[in-house]
């Protein structure tokens, strides 16, 4: 990351990361497809039950993925400055904290599962299955959080291939367990939730074993498995704003899901299926944002500021090309892909409508993700979080409370996505132009060098 051409290295970093995210998305897609095809007359309600859980699960997981970004940036900076001791402390701190936090979240979630879903306007015929799916899924939260923090460790040192290979194996297991539990045992939503938990346990366990056997500063040792207070505070300084951003972002999406739930199980089912397809394109664009964060983080740690700026330009241009290709493929085969989840022609058309509207916003999303990643690579995390709350969350909440009640339709809900993402992209771009983090970092380094000479 610190020397030579950037364009091929960013691609080699981003594409495995995109495939890793897509595989994680396919866990949920496989759940919906299997219950839709093999749950008999309950198929539509079962799909709706899983869809009702999606924004809540995203709220939990994305919050900690945001915090894990602190691990990614901290390790990237430490690698750039060749501080192996800091890398080792960050690895042990991240693994121990993530696993403990997972148990706390799982315990609290089990107590609040039914009230949370009831507050989301989930229809009565869907609610029992939605609660059952959520309760089983929560048992896997410790290993899911562990996997994401382990992946952040690998990303920080520039390795995105190992998490991908392990997740590919877990993905195959997830599909096989889905089919076994649903077709052979007739477990419906309980079966697909259990399959997801088992496959995530396998993936996190294999990554943990790989870190135990690795060489270098990321090698884990049970004797060192405890949080380092100083390192944890530095990780949280970057990670907490990103986590809060993800939490508020997901909370706004929960409000949108609540509005979708009022339109009936057919719309819920269609929206749930479409979310899994649009997620594929999202993980493509998001991977270039994460690549920008890691490349900028390492080069900033090494004092190579001009290379930070080149990383931003290349990540953004490559992200545009890759995202356009992903969107084109999905829209070309969208109706056929939606039919894999089961459902009537009406459900498929509603889902395709969602895809078209959402994808108009994805280049705004790419801009927002990549330039936010650029700021975080320099350790600037609170500002993107605040702008996200204002641009995305503020607009979405206002729209659902003030506009949707006057025009209660699915299209009315969907329009808020391009509106909010476009606004936030402009805000983030403005912040980068005003702050000029590269210029500020260069001045700080020159001042530090001058003080050292004196």
Radius of gyration: 22 Å
Number of helices: 17
**How many beta-strand segments?**
0
Structural class of the secondary structure composition? mainly alpha
Task: Assess the beta-strand content as a share of residues.
Answer: under 5%
Question: What's the assembly state of these chains?
Answer: single chain
Given as residue ranges, the uncertain stretches (5+ residues, pLDDT < 50) are none
Using the alpha-carbon principal axes, give the shape: globular
Q: How many structural domains?
A: 1
Mean pLDDT: 84
Largest sheet: none
Describe the structure.
By secondary structure, the protein is mostly helical. It has one domain (7-447). The chain is built from 17 helices and no strands. The protein has helices spanning 7-38, 43-80, 84-118, 127-138, 141-156, 161-184, 188-213, 229-261, 265-301, 305-332, 334-339, 345-359, 362-377, 382-403, 410-414, 416-435, 437-453. α2 runs parallel beside α5, α9 packs parallel to α13 and α10 packs antiparallel against α17 (437-453). The radius of gyration is 22 Å and the shape is globular. The mean pLDDT is 84.
Summarize the structure.
This protein is mainly alpha-helical. The protein has helices at 7-38, 43-80, 84-118, 127-138, 141-156, 161-184, 188-213, 229-261, 265-301, 305-332, 334-339, 345-359, 362-377, 382-403, 410-414, 416-435, 437-453. The chain has one domain (7-447).
């Amino acid at each position: 990351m610190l020397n030579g051409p950037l364009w091929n290295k960013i691609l080699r970093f981003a594409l495995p990361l995109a495939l890793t995210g897509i595989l994680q998305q396919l866990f949920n897609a496989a759940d919906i497809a299997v219950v839709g095809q093999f749950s008999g007359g309950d198929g539509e309600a079962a799909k709706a039950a899983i869809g009702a859980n999606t924004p809540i699960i995203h709220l939990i997981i994305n919050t900690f993925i945001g915090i894990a970004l602190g691990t990614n940036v901290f390790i990237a900076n430490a690698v750039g400055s060749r501080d192996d001791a800091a890398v080792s402390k960050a690895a042990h701190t991240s693994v121990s904290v993530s696993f403990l936090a997972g148990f706390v979240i799982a315990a609290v979630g089990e107590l609040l599962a039914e009230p949370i879903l009831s507050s989301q306007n989930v229809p009565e015929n869907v609610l029992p299955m939605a609660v059952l799916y959520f309760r089983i899924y929560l048992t896997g939260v410790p290993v899911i959080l562990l996997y994401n923090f382990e992946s952040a460790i690998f990303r920080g040192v520039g390795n995105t291939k190992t998490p991908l290979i392990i997740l590919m194996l877990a993905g195959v297991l997830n599909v096989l367990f889905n089919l076994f539990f649903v077709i052979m045992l007739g477990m419906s939503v309980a079966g697909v939730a259990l399959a997801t938990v088992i496959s995530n346990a396998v993936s996190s366990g294999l990554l943990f074993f790989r870190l135990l056997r690795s060489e270098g500063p990321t090698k884990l040792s049970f004797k060192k498995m405890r949080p380092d207070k100083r390192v944890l505070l530095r990780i949280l300084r970057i990670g907490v704003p990103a986590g809060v951003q993800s939490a508020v972002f997901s909370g706004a999406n929960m409000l949108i899901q609540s509005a979708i739930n009022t339109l009936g199980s057919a719309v819920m089912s269609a929206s749930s299926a479409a979310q899994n397809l649009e997620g594929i394109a999202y993980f493509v664009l998001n991977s270039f944002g994460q690549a920008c964060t890691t490349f900028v983080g390492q080069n900033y740690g090494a004092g190579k500021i001009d290379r930070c700026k080149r990383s931003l330009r290349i990540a953004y241009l490559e992200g545009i090309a890759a995202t356009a290709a992903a969107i084109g493929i999905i829209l070309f085969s969208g109706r056929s892909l939606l039919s894999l989840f089961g459902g009537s022609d009406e459900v498929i058309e509603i889902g395709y409508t969602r895809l078209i509207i959402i994808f108009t916003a994805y280049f705004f999303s790419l801009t927002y993700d990549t330039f936010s990643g650029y700021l975080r690579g320099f350790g600037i995390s609170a500002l993107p979080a605040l702008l996200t709350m204002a641009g995305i969350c503020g607009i979405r909440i206002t729209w659902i409370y003030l506009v949707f009640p006057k025009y209660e339709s699915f299209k009315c809900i969907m329009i808020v996505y391009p509106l909010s993402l476009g606004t936030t992209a402009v805000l983030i771009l403005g912040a980068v132009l005003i702050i000029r983090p590269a210029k500020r970092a260069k001045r700080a380094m020159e001042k530090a060098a001058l003080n050292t000479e004196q």
